[in-house]
Design brief:
Elements: E1 3-7, H1 14-27, E2 39-40, E3 44-48, E4 53-57, E5 60-68, H2 71-77, H3 88-99, E6 109-117, E7 122-127, E8 136-140, E9 143-147, H4 150-153, H5 165-172, E10 193-198, E11 204-207, H6 222-238, E12 246-250, H7 255-270, E13 275-281, E14 295-296, H8 300-307, E15 313-319, H9 325-336, H10 346-358, E16 361-365, H11 381-388, H12 391-403, H13 408-416, H14 420-429, H15 445-450, H16 472-480, H17 485-496, E17 499-501, H18 507-515, H19 529-535, H20 541-544, E18 549-550, H21 556-562, H22 564-575, H23 580-583, H24 586-594, H25 603-627
Parallel strand pairs: 12-13, 12-16, 13-15, 14-18, 16-17
Antiparallel strand pairs: 1-3, 1-9, 2-3, 4-5, 5-6, 6-7, 7-10, 8-9, 10-11
Length: 641
Amino acid sequence: MPLAGVFGPAARTPEVLAGIHAGLTRMAVPNDISGHQIHGDLRCSFAVTAPATVHSSQGVLIAFEGRLFEAESLAHSLGLADPLDLEPAELAFAAYQRWGSDFVLHLDGEFTAVVYDPAQSRLILARDVMGRGSIHYLCRGSDLLFATEPVGLFAFPGTAVQPNWKRLAALATLLPPVGQTGFEGVLFPAAGSFLLAQEGRAARTVRCWFPEQQPQLRLPRTSDYAEALRTAMCRAVKVRIPPDGLVATELSAGYDSSAVTALAAHVLARQNRPLVAYTAVPSHPNDASDIVKYGIADEWPLASTLAAKHSNIEHCAVPTAAAPWLESLDCMTEIFAAPPLFIRNLPWMYAARRMAQEKSISHILNGQNGNLAGSYDGAFALFDMRRRGRWRDLLETARQWHQAGASWRSLLMRAWLPTHQTRTQLRRLFGSSQEEFAAYCLLKPDFLQAIDIAVPQASVLGLPVDGDRSNGAARRFSIMQMVDFGGQYAAERRLFQLHRSDPTADRKLVELCLSFPDEVFCPGGKRRALYREAMRGILPEELLQETGFGVQASDFLQNFGEGMPEWRQVLEAAEQSRATADYLDVPRLRHMLEVFAPSSSNRQKEDTLYNYTVGGALALLRFLQHFGPGHDGAAAGRVLP
């Protein structure tokens, strides 16, 4: 949804109005030349393009884009007549009228809503509580600029594209801050929050949704939890199937994408409609167990067992080397609005989007949030019991897990879950080896210190994200908030005309799963046992019993080596920039490219070094070449050939 506007004294100046139009043009779908009507008054001006709509009533203006699930039920609860004839913007207005600034809490869907209330002298920038809608903002003096995507903000006069080094450095240290983008000053309200701007006051983010604080749900039997999970998953998929258009899924050998695909195929089959399923397949034969213990190099055979169960599934393979590296990197960088930290999957991810675009697919479903919701493995169960003071349950559960084969040392660590800093201190105390941070990061330590980033003592690769440490549910929810999927979805709609949705990030499903006691997900220490019970009969038994781990782009090192001419191109451009040496160890980067010669004896470490250390550095360089100082963001939207 292209949407752009300004709240503040300059809202009606010719320069700002021109910036609104320019921003909409930059964010528009190719060949969209529709006009832009300006809404608002002297204090607030904004414009939208289809499919967004604007509703005006009692002096209040609401811009709305997206979908409301089960809108008829919402309309009835609001006492509205003829709910089927109401636009979502009208329902949003009625909710605002009833509940004020907390209206977003009562809207279930995937959407962006902008409310301008002149009587209250306030502007609200909101999106669905799971953050799948998109809105970004930038404070400039007394004015608040807002747009669907960051590139829409750069069209306003006087806004320069500057890299947000705090954010970029945090990515390199694997500690991404919530609510920030790769651009200086460009922010977005985190999931479960909205931005409130009032005349004469500083804009502030207001958190309105606290799913991790709800009481734990206690049911008599594990089968009751499984049935509740199954019902919620079925609903989450069903409400996301559009009434028309071609639908696709991203299908791996994992539980989540498999369940989404199976349930979507079932819904579409009843409507006599097909489903396209895309699965990444290695372009080179390899053994993934060299990278991950019990790793599955090729997920196609397991994914095919599911596809074969549904006659309406068209199963499509996407080779991992299906697209050039730089073309893929440029496009996915724009979608992420930041340099991708890990690059291994970029070519097939980009290629799958191109394939979907060529088929005129309108909606694509995935299961990215699943391992924090329905297929959560219960990893924080002992930690959660300790934090909640459930000592008797903790001891009994630990005893059961020990009988299932877990060591007492591992159980102690699961109950404690020390911070990264404490882990490093313990390793040093007991003489355990751990890779130093500098071994895995090419950003210079003195540069990190200069921008006030604490340089980690050791690499945190492979360690769990710290997150909110209040309890297990809080940790999972804080991890869910760390990526701005709404911004990614908006860019993908612009670049590929694809509407992406994740049923495993459904609000009601997430609320349900966060209310389950953590140990319910892994009774007796058997990880994901609850999910296997819930999905029995939906997923093939061989998939449910699989204990290995799918390794996407397991042939990454071969693909990386084939892209060496492109990587040297990025390096040569960086070496010509004097500023690059201020923050990046360029000589070491060149050396690592020159000595690239992967061997099977140390494939796991080499995979990490070139996927994360070298790949992350190259992605950062490419990001700065497009969006660094001296650029105005106008290149955005033109990365595709």
